[in-house]
Amino acid sequence: LGFLAGDGRNPFMANMTWAHKMRVMRAIERLPARYVLVDLGAGSSYNTLDFFSLAPRGLVVSTPELPAIMNLMAFFKNWILRNIAREVNRNEPLKKIVLGARNQPMRAPAWTVEDLISRISDVSPEYGERIRGLCRGFQPRLVFNMVEHPDELELLKNVEQSLKKRLSLDVDFFGCLFRDPVARRVAGSGRPLLPSSTESVLAEGIVRLADRLIRLWASPISDSRLRLVRSTEKEYRGRCAAAGVNDSEPASGR
After folding, report:
1. How does pLDDT run across 200-245, given as a tens digit for each residue?
2. Distance between CA 84 and CA 8 in Å, rounded?
């Protein structure tokens, strides 16, 4: 197990030059490791988008709240647009089309990825097919954090439909972590969550998530949204039954 410090140890790492970024990315790709975890933080700067593009199945952590979901959608939109822009970077007519989509006025009708690919295909069918294949290869994973109740996952159907319709993006709903007061206590103590709080709701959720990463990361998950909703409901009911409480109440801290 090895660690490479980011901004906290090496100032201004978030603002590295393009050449520096490419060296770091190539070094990451050459690491003799089975799993490489790159903690990118929030935002959609070019550096964040490019590091996220190191793998077609990056993992995004969000909360099941509307502002967070809107940020999630914006991140994926910027990520796909960044990848398309890099693909057509040496073709000036296509580059102008992509820049036009990126810089369109706020009042202009919202574009979809399929709209953009169609416009590219009108100019170059070869590029259009190449970009469509590029987008088909994307299948990021979503984890929802600080969930209070399984009912909060009802919005996942709309998220799934919106990503497919607007961005032509299939995602895997990969995991769910319940809100747990132990997270704040452990953070305040400066101790790692594991092994100091192994029996907490959060620790058990992280262990399950790690197990899924090992077992399922290499392949797409069929019906991932329904599977996640059902497994979350089952876990929640089990915790409520063990605690002898009504399953309509939040599960945090149980």
Report:
1. 899 999 999 999 999 988 888 899 999 999 999 999 998 888 877 7
2. 32
Cα atoms in the 13 Å half-sphere on the side-chain side of 39: 6
What pLDDT, in 10s, does the model give residues 107-128?
Answer: 778 889 999 999 999 999 999 9
- pTM, two decimals, is 0.87
- Band the pLDDT of 9: cuts 50, 70, 90: low
| Collapsed DSSP state (helix, strand, coil) of residue 136 | helix
> Rounded to whole angstroms, what are the CA distances from 109 to 10, 83, 101, 112?
42, 22, 10, 10
Angle at 219 between CA 232 and CA 161, to 5 degrees: 60
Does residue 93 contact residue 175 with C-beta atoms inside 8 Å? no
Q: What would the two tokens of residue 94 be? A: 């296509």
The per-residue b/e assignment along 65-88, b for 16 or more CB within 10 angstroms, e otherwise, is eeebbebbbebbbbbbbbbbbebb
Q: How many CA atoms lie within 13 A of 253 on its CB side?
A: 6
Return the amino acid letter for 60: V
Amino acid identity of 179?
A: R
Per domain, the residue ranges of the chain are 37-243
- Indicate the fold that domain 37-243 takes in CATH: Rossmann fold (3.40.50)
